[in-house]
Amino acid sequence: MNRISLTDRRLFLVVLIVLLGIVMSFLSPYFLRADNLLSMTQYGAVLGLLALGQTFVILGGGGGIDLSIGSTMSLATVAFGLAAVKLGLDPWVAAVVAIAAGAALGAVNAFLINVLRLPPLIATLGTLYLYSSLALVLSGGVDINGFDRSGFAYLGQSKIAGIPFQVLFVLVPVFIVAAVYMVRTRQGRQIYEVGNGSITAALAGVNVRKVRTSLYVYSGMLAGLAAVVNASWLLNAKPTAGAGMELQAITIAVLGGVVITGGIGTVLGTLLGLTVVVVLNSGLQLAGVSNTWQIGLLGAVLIASVILNNIVGRRRTR
After folding, report:
1. Which of 22, 34, 184, 197 has the most other CB atoms within 10 Å of its CB?
2. CA 283, 285, 289, 291 torsion: positive or negative?
3. pLDDT (tens digit, 9 = 90+) per residue, 39-80?
4. CB 265 within 8 A of CB 53
5. Under a CB-based contact definition with an 8 Å cutoff, are residues 254 and 174 in contact?
6. Burial profile 195-210: b = 16 or more Cβ within 10 angstroms, e = fewer
């Protein structure tokens, strides 16, 4: 049943993407231009990394969720900016610092949840506020500039055959590695086992705490990587870089078929969910639709897609 449902969801998302593309092309004559379609992916690269991190955490079950992932990106961005500007490190070395900082922040979440036994919703809501406040305090509430050297801008601003570099050599490889990891490795399969039932997984010899701890660390690392890509794209380390992105990341994961209780979902589904959100946001912006309506329509698409997919799933299993 799960396999049928997931297949239906992926097929449904492909159809939805095509339909949205047609609708957006009518709303704006510029939507289907190659330069617009390719530029959409620059923002999608950052958001996609966060959505993938959220996918990992939710798949692990136990009520897993990372509300702090946007704030983790913000604080990792500040860590990058301070390392590159205040400490004078090479931007590429500072990028490693940012990713390591993201991993450390994810480990803090894991400690609160898996050791202190705080509910994931409460723990990551608390660190959302904590990390965002630290980002503002450490940066003095201002953007950090001055790290445009050593070819760092190439990561976020260059293109190959018209395709943004960060899509070809960051987003796509990360998603491929994640997909292979989830399907082809023992550790990846253990994530599904833990998500489908921690007690059963533990009886089968799986270290549930270790698996769930690793997921929050992965989420933090991906947020740190997103911070690096975003800083290279904008050449600006903003202390609010990831503000609000946590909800979009959750939306993309759920839209892509990740079941909020864990154990069901795919990396491909998350990628398709990302495409839906990016197409919708870009098309509505080109059409001059206000941000208020964009948020409302995104919510409507999410609810409608889940309802329709559930209807189709029930019919296919009868």
Report:
1. 197
2. positive
3. 788 889 999 999 999 999 999 999 999 999 999 999 999 999
4. no
5. no
6. bbebeebeeeebebee
